[in-house]
């Protein structure tokens, strides 16, 4: 299976205070990051870029995050995209849920920066303590999917 590290991280959150800190953190670590406040801008960005990871708030306006991500991924033909949802109402810990588009991690906000970086590394297949490759850097496409390697999330039904 191909590694996900060659894609852009799309942050979808209507609250600029939340996504600005997350975007800065990921950008400082060497990831290509873009952000969207609503469904229209998120779909537009997904059509323009190959996505490696979507970090989405559990609610975006009146829409549930999983529905929004499902709509984005229906139009996204660039391969498998990892998904992470954040919510203030989420239980503590990392919970893996299956959705119509595939598995997604669910995390409680605020997410500790060190935890967020570790999860992003695992989801994108970036070796720990190695700079994240920007899109203009060479990418190792031989790694297995990191969702199943050494990560023990809590499994819950929808």
Supply database-style keywords.
9 strands, 7-stranded mixed sheet, 158 residues, alpha/beta, two-stranded antiparallel sheet, disordered C terminus
The side-by-side strand order for the widest beta sheet comes to 2-1-3-6-8-7-9
Order of helices and strands: EHEHEEEHEEEHE
Structural class: alpha/beta
Q: pLDDT under 50 segments (min length 5)?
A: 1-5, 135-158
% residues in beta strands: 25-35%
* Share in helix: 25-40%
Integer average pLDDT: 76
Biggest pleated sheet: 7 strands, mixed
Count of helical regions: 4
Distance between the termini: 26 Å
Count of beta strands: 9
CA radius of gyration? 14 Å
Q: Sum up the overall morphology in one term.
A: globular
Brief account:
This protein is α/β, with parallel strands linked by helices and 158 residues long.
Task: Give a description of the structure.
This protein has helices at residues 16-28, 39-48, 65-75, 113-124; strands spanning 8-12, 33-36, 51-57, 59-60, 63-64, 82-87, 95-99, 102-108, 154-155. With 158 residues, the protein is an alpha/beta fold.
């Amino acid at each position: 299976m191909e590694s996900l590290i060659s894609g852009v991280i799309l942050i979808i959150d209507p609250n600029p205070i939340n996504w600005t800190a997350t975007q800065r953190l990921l950008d400082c670590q060497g990831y290509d990051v873009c952000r969207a406040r609503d469904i229209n801008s998120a779909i537009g960005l997904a059509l323009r870029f190959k996505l490696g990871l979507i970090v989405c708030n559990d609610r975006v306006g009146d829409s549930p995050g999983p529905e929004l991500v499902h709509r984005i991924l229906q139009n996204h033909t660039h391969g498998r995209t990892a998904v992470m949802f954040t919510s203030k109402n989420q239980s503590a810990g990392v919970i893996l849920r299956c959705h119509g588009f595939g598995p997604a991690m669910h995390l409680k906000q605020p997410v500790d920066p060190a935890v967020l970086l570790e999860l992003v590394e695992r989801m994108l297949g970036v070796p720990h303590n190695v700079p994240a490759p920007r899109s203009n850097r060479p990418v190792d496409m031989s790694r297995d999917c990191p969702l199943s390697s050494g990560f023990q999330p809590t499994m819950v039904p929808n």
